[in-house]
Design brief:
The protein is an alpha+beta fold and 876 residues long. Among the domains are: 199 residues, tricorn interacting facor f3 domain (Immunoglobulin-like, Sandwich), CATH 2.60.40.1730; 133 residues, Neutral Protease, domain 2, CATH 1.10.390.10; 90 residues, Aminopeptidase N, middle-beta domain (Immunoglobulin-like, Sandwich). Helix content is 40%, strand content 20%. The protein has 26 helices and 32 strands. Strands 2, 3, 5, 6, 9, 12, 14, 15 and 16 form a nine-stranded mixed beta sheet that branches. A five-stranded mixed beta sheet has the order 18-19-20-22-21, with helices on one face. β2 and β3 form a beta hairpin. α4 crosses α5, α15 packs parallel to α17 and α23 runs parallel beside α25. This is Aminopeptidase N. Its cofactor is Zn(2+). It holds the Pfam family Peptidase_M1_N.
Length: 876
């Protein structure tokens, strides 16, 4: 019998309103190196008159020192305390005041939730349920209170004291301590509370809102990072302006603060007025951060700022509604990035993440709808399904309603619900009512798990000059048909877009959005004068798998001519997939491998197309990953996929060597800048270098080594290092040591050093990873460092899924270590075993053995237990 404490599932259907509300809370923190005292004074009222229910407050790892009810000290017989709750069995059916003083020890908080220390500074992370580790409270998102926060600390050690809202008072005490009082005028749930105290540097700026108010902007970092903040500040200013212009949303406080911390479980947190960020998404200079880092920082800064309205001003009723704020805000940051950079590149990048991570999650034991029906540990549901698929569902509204219709829905949503904790149904109702459309069927996107599959087939009638496109949904018996928008174009024989009409009176368009609502529907386009080549699911108009029989000649044609950039890229990915799987069959049959000449010619046309943006071209020249290819198989052919993909890459490098070298040289001498043009040139140049280095000759190694040593930016230096770690050269070891000595004192760059080595496809990678675990600069205590090596290596399919299972055993060892210190990160890491049933019998047995070992471990956290029990299909 397997038993774990507190592993009872919580269900959405059981939601009930809170019995009590908290209108205001006054917090007083006395920060001390040994014990921190938290004094809380709350005004509480019952939800209904004459109710006679106990007050049950959440609390974990708290030492209760005193409790007062309306100013009177309570004795131990008047309340009950256990590991997770403080209960007052007899409270009046009217408003009352409750005061408590608790002790906490932030310096011992390795889980990094609640109040903890990072590099000697205090900071908080309260989402989802971290506030209960700070003081006793109704720690749920539908309890919204107004907060005032006073922080007292030693001034020499903690000169900066920050919290939510506006700073209203401050002063000094006689014992060398000082204090600051903050007041947040807006009611908020406890998960948005924030506190920071430490020795920090402020990179300041300002923003003038459209109504003329001046907002103070502050980026707070450790002093040694003072020169890495300007990009974050500019990103914040751009996000604030964009939100005003696109959605009419203006910032509402006098100050907006961002604090960068080195130890953080997540990317960033949108606490009202005081965002706490993983330093990875704030700090950058050209020599320490890549182009992708710069774009990632801008996107995350924007994401957390956008939460001020979609998450803070309007928040979730309960945690099952998490996608209400996260899916919506991810969509908003995606739209922002599309406008700031390249819409086509951003769309492809987002779909790659969706397909590689979210589609995989849909195939796993942890599959769930974007609005889950149950959970054991809420932290396990901060997933790509809730975030990324949730964003795709929000995008569906805009695809169906248009940008203007979507804006009308957003306006009505804020008009109705500002200051409230609401549900996904409230958002859907606002969209429907604002546009006077029926979106009832749309609820299935929230209720049904899994990736919809649509089959498409077309018939051209030359006599009637029509093209009939039939779409069929493959829907499991327990599910119902989705409402799916499918954007369609038709190409003529010269590659031109044909004009499309569904009805004689309807306006003609080159792209038509079809609404698939039934299990099967046929759409007939009129006045089609020639046999067309379909371009389906343009701009990836819905998060589905589309099955459409397409000949290789047609894919090559779409690669060369499709006006939709996403579908042009998609045609290349489908072509490459077909080629790789055919070669895999030959490899498994022991045949000599030979690259398809048509595919090679299609790649050459992309190489020679001067009209293509360098970033798009780089994406089009990148083959599908082994992980993605494995997802398309009933049983993952680990060794075969690795061998065949390596063969294709090397063949393309050999056959088109002159073209790769020409591209490299043409883009190599451009001076560094952060412009879109320069970024595109670097991306294309480094893609060419990666192909060139597949040949692993003295000449190609010398090219990479030269770039590595002479580069003036991290994008080029890291790309060259990635090439060198995959060569059997003397320069490989020299470059690894040189990079370490150069950047050993920069934690974020040192993370890159660990990651690059974990991605190597050479056979000694596992041994190197084992050695790096013992490196003086490696620690499991820092989530970024742990992710940089462990999480990255676990995605290195051929090396992680070794036939001997040694990597599985090592990974399980690490999960169990983290289980005791940081369960949230441990549960993320153990998820790599979720797909164990999709591998061959030998690997299945090896992974299953490690899962059984983990679940039988004493004191297993509910975070890890939930993932492992679902993976093993353990009941009870």
């Amino acid at each position: 019998m397997i038993y774990q404490e507190n592993t009872q599932a919580i269900y959405r259907k059981d939601y009930q309103q809170p019995d009590f509300f908290i209108d205001s809370v006054d917090l007083h923190f006395s920060l001390d190196e040994d014990v921190t005292l938290v004094h809380s004074r709350m005004t509480i009222r019952p939800r209904t008159e004459n109710q006679k229910k106990p007050l049950i407050l959440n609390g974990e790892l708290l030492v209760l020192k005193s409790l007062k009810f309306n100013g009177h000290v309570l004795n131990a017989t008047q309340y009950h305390v256990d590991k997770t709750h403080l209960t007052l069995p007899n409270v009046p059916a009217e408003a009352f005041e409750l005061e408590s003083i608790v002790e906490i020890k932030p310096q011992e908080n390795t889980a990094l939730t609640g109040l903890y220390q990072s590099s000697g500074n205090y900071c908080t992370q309260c989402e989802a349920e971290g506030f209960r580790r700070i003081t006793y409270f109704l720690d749920r998102p539908d309890v919204m209170a107004r907060y005032t926060t006073t922080i007292v600390a030693d001034k020499s050690r903690y000169p900066v004291l920050l919290s939510n809202g506006n700073r209203v008072e401050y002063g000094e005490l006689n014992d060398g301590r000082h204090w600051v009082k903050w007041a947040d005028p807006f009611p908020k749930p406890s998960y948005l509370f924030a506190l920071v105290a430490g020795n920090l540097y402020c990179h300041g700026g300002k923003f003038t809102t459209r109504s003329g108010r001046e907002v103070r902007l502050e980026i707070w970092v450790e002093p040694q990072n003072h020169d890495q903040c300007e990009h974050a500040l500019q990103s914040l200013q751009k996000a604030m302006r964009w939100d005003e212009e696109r959605f009419g949303l203006e910032y509402d406080l006098d100050i907006y603060m961002i604090v960068a911390v080195g130890d953080f479980n997540m990317g960033a947190m949108e606490n009202k007025g005081l965002n706490v960020f993983n330093a990875k998404f704030v700090l950058c200079r050209p020599d320490t951060a890549t182009d992708d880092d710069y774009e990632g920082i801008e996107a995350v800064i924007a994401h957390e700022y956008f939460h001020n309205w979609t998450g803070n001003r309007v928040t979730c009723r309960d945690w099952f509604q998490l996608t209400l704020k996260e899916g919506l805000t991810v969509f908003r940051d995606q739209q922002f990035t599309e406008d700031m950079t390249s819409a086509a590149v951003k769309r492809i990048q987002d779909v790659r993440i969706l397909r590689s991570a979210q589609f995989a999650e849909d195939q796993s034991p942890m599959a769930h709808p974007i609005r889950p029906e149950s959970y054991i540990e809420m932290n396990n549901f901060y997933t790509v399904t809730v975030y990324n698929k949730g964003a795709e569902v929000i995008r569906l509204y805009q695809t169906l309603l248009g940008k203007d219709g979507f804006r009308r829905g957003m306006d009505l949503y804020f008009q109705r619900h500002d200051g409230q904790a609401v549900t996904c149904d409230d958002f859907r109702a606002a969209m429907a009512d604002a546009n006077q459309v029926d979106l009832t069927q749309f609820e299935r996107w929230y209720d049904q798990a899994g990736t919809p599959v649509v089959e498409a087939s077309g018939v051209y009638d030359a006599t009637a000059k029509t093209y009939a496109l039939t779409l069929r949904q493959q829907v499991p018996e327990h599910l119902q048909a989705w409402h799916i928008p499918v954007a369609v174009g038709l190409l003529g024989k010269e590659g031109q877009d044909l004009s499309l009409q569904l009805e004689e009176t309807a306006p003609a368009k080159t792209t038509q959005v079809l609404e698939l609502r039934e299990l099967e529907q046929t759409f007939t386009f009129k006045n089609i004068s020639e046999l067309p080549i379909p371009s389906l699911l343009r701009h990836f108009s819905a998060p589905i798998k589309l099955n459409f029989s397409c000949q290789r000649q047609e894919l090559a044609f779409l690669m060369a001519h499709d006006s939709d950039p996403f579908n042009r890229w998609e045609a290349g990915q489908q072509f490459a997939q077909q080629v790789i799987f055919d070669l895999l069959a030959d490899w498994q049959a022991g045949k000599t491998l030979q690259l398809d000449a048509l595919f090679s010619e299609a790649v050459l046309k992309i190489l020679q197309d001067d009209k293509l943006d360098g970033s798009i071209k780089s994406l089009m020249l990148t083959l599908p990953t082994e992980n993605f290819l494995g997802q398309q198989q009933a049983e993952v052919a680990v060794d075969g996929l690795f061998a065949v993909r390596q063969f294709v890459l090397k063949q393309l490098a050999e056959v088109h060597y002159a073209e790769w070298l020409a591209i490299y040289r043409a883009n190599h001498q451009m001076p560094y800048s952060n412009s879109a043009t320069a970024i595109a040139c670097r991306r294309l140049k480094n893609t060419a270098l990666h192909y060139i280095c597949r040949l692993d000759t003295p000449e190609t190694v010398n090219l990479a080594e030269k770039q590595f040593k002479q580069s003036d930016n991290m994008t080029d230096q890291q790309s060259a290092l990635m090439c060198l770690v995959n060569t059997f050269s003397e320069e490989r070891g020299q470059a690894i040591e040189y990079f370490y000595q150069q950047w050993r004192h920069n934690p974020l760059v040192l993370d890159k050093w660990f990651s690059v080595q974990a991605t190597s496809y050479l056979p000694d990678t596992f041994d190197n990873v084992k050695a790096l675990l013992q490196h003086q600069d490696f620690t499991l205590k820092n989530p970024n460092r742990a992710r940089s090596l462990i999480a990255v290596f676990s995605q290195n399919q051929a090396q992680f899924h070794r036939a001997d299972g040694l990597a599985y055993q090592l990974h399980a060892d690490i999960v169990l270590q983290l289980n005791a210190t940081n369960p949230q990160i441990a549960s993320r890491f153990v998820s790599v075993f979720n797909h164990w049933r999709r591998f061959d019998a030998n690997r299945q047995a090896l992974m299953q053995a490690q899962l059984n070992r983990i679940i039988q471990h004493p004191n297993l956290s509910k975070d890890v237990y939930e993932v492992v029990s679902k993976s093993l299909n353990v009941k009870g």
